[in-house]
Amino acid sequence: MPTQDFFTQQARTLTAEAIRHVESSTNAELVVAVRRQSGRYLHAYCAVGLVTLMSTLCVILFVDIEFALQAIPFEVLAAFAFGVLLASIVPPLRRLTTLRSERDALVGTAARACFYDAGISKTRGRSGLLLYYSAFERKAELVADVGLDLTKLRAGWDSAIHAAAARADFEGMLEAIRGLGPLLGALSPKTSDDANELSDEVNAE
Fold this sequence. Notes:
- The chain is α/β, with parallel strands linked by helices.
- It has 2 domains: 3-39 and 99-204, Diaminopimelate Epimerase, Chain A, domain 1 (Roll); 42-96, no CATH class.
- It is built from 9 helices and 4 strands.
- A 4-stranded mixed beta sheet has the order 3-2-1-4, sandwiched between helices.
- A hairpin with a 4-residue loop joins strand 2 (128-134) and strand 3 (139-144).
- It is elongated, with a radius of gyration of 22 Å.
- The model has no long low-confidence stretch (mean pLDDT 90).
């Protein structure tokens, strides 16, 4: 599924509806954040650029075609620039040139920064929960406040969200979000004085 499916207005509307469905049965405050990527990955762009540069240089050196000596530096630089451009528009190339552990670490760091930047740690019952999804890394991260036991929340549910994230499956993620309702309801049951402290709109960038 294309990355942009997570950022359309329809996707945001459906996600907000899923959040309201979850919060109808719990005092917990759920926030969903989506990002196009969680790191800059400059080295990945350079790596792809170097591959195209070296490939072009090999052609110049070993293929039986005559090249103007004065043009070779410019041709090599143009090949590097083409590789950087290619990496910018073909995300799988950037994923191939980065380590999974690096991508996971960057998503984790970005998710925790988002948790505090969005004020999720300031709810009255300390029961805020962030579901953070980063499209380039195809990785979902849960960050919970101290009022929620994340280990209990993850039991029987974690695999569903991570599988959907790895497939970039928006419908699968929606189903996983809706599935949070009973789990959060058990951890933090709905009470009559509950107030909606955080916006239900998707935090998207």
